[in-house]
Amino acid sequence: MALNLLLLGLLINIFVFTADAQSVGVCYGTIANNLPSPRQVVSLYIRNRITRMRIYAPRSDILEALRGTNIELILDVPNVSLENLTNPNLATDWVRNNIVNYPDVSFRYISVGNEVDPNNDVTRQFVRFVLPAMINVQNALEAAGRANQIKVSTATYTGLLKDSYPPSIGVFHVNVADFIRPIITFLVKNGSPMLANIYPYFAHIGPPASPDLPFALFTRTTPAYKDGDRPYFNLFDAMYDAHYAAQSRLGGADVKIVVSESGWPSAGHNSATPGNAGTYYRNLISHVKSSRGTPVRPGKPIETYLFAMFDENDKTGEPTEKNFGVFTPGQVSKYQLSF
Ligand SMILES: *[C@@H]1O[C@H](CO)[C@@H](O)[C@H](O)[C@H]1NC(C)=O
Ligand SMILES: *[C@@H]1O[C@H](CO)[C@@H](O)[C@H](O)[C@H]1NC(C)=O
């Protein structure tokens, strides 16, 4: 009997683990004045069997709503908090207030900063804080006995790459290398993944290059090109492999890349239509959940987080920025996706 129960437990574990390992996540951005409450949002995730979430700052109402749900979470340290976390005591406080105090929330990764970039006028100021903050958060998690389950990383993006075509020549900008190399060393040392925001949409609309729409939407039936003997059928794989090539040059060949954002807007540009967006999300989900992998990393699903859960009406910048949701603020599914 005991043995039977043990076997049953193992089977259930294997089942849950397998189902879980293949789910896509969705980023829960909140730059809007018309979104449902965190409780309603968490319930929308559960009804749609979305088992992973990313949030961009610790918010007690969201963390409360996540208690006991098993939804696995990427929690960001917002850029504006990075400087504080270069102080070990403040990092310990941050980890206690936002992680340790929620033992029934399934934290998966802490993203220390988002798209911090030495070549960007707005985010350059944060560059020198990222690694010290990562180290302090890591130490605080270790002290709290949580460093085995929760991995510390930072979210990069394609803007850090100098070259990405063909993918095998992928390389970081010269001045980015000095920023990212010690971060890669940190990731290797702690068995953490690299997080990367990868948007074929932005590559498609350019500048400089404008890869064709079927390549960006995963609808080509013949390769767009071959890189050596590797055929590329879709731009997502090409961008992913370019990131991989870039980090491999700096000692990160064994660091897994988690796609911490990818999406396509439904309005605000000629290429941003509901039809294109629906095609992109559907094909992205089926691609990353399959074990096709990419030409350089075949045979494995790619852990991926769609951007974003809702259209966000308070976002600034390009008109498309408000239109990345896979749901409307009224909780209507825009593309009937199966996550
Ligand atoms: C990062 O910081 C910049 C500057 O404060 C800000 O514009 C951007 O929205 C921030 N991103 C996140 C996700 O915190
Ligand atoms: C930084 O830390 C100080 C002191 O604990 C706190 O008052 C302040 O709100 C923090 N700033 C941010 C942006 O988190």
Describe the overall structure:
Pfam families: Glyco_hydro_17. This is Glucan endo-1,3-beta-D-glucosidase. One of its GO terms (biological process) is carbohydrate metabolic process. The radius of gyration is 20 Å and the shape is globular. The protein has 339 residues and is of the alpha/beta class. The protein is built from 10 helices and 12 strands. The strands form 3 sheets. Strands 1-2-3-4-5-8-11-12 form an 8-stranded parallel beta barrel, surrounded by 4 helices. A two-stranded antiparallel ribbon has the order 6-7. Bound molecules: 2-acetamido-2-deoxy-beta-D-glucopyranose (NAG) (2 copies). One 2-acetamido-2-deoxy-beta-D-glucopyranose binds next to loops.
Fold topology:
Layout: H1 2-21, E1 25-27, H2 38-47, E2 52-55, H3 60-66, E3 72-77, H4 88-100, E4 106-114, H5 127-143, E5 151-157, E6 161-163, E7 171-172, H6 174-190, E8 194-197, H7 200-205, H8 213-216, E9 225-227, E10 230-232, H9 235-248, E11 257-262, H10 274-289, E12 304-307
Parallel strand pairs: 1-2, 1-12, 2-3, 3-4, 4-5, 5-8, 8-11, 11-12
Antiparallel strand pairs: 6-7, 9-10
The chain binds 2-acetamido-2-deoxy-beta-D-glucopyranose (2 copies).
EC number: 3.2.1.39
GO molecular function: glucan endo-1,3-beta-D-glucosidase activity
Enzyme class: hydrolase
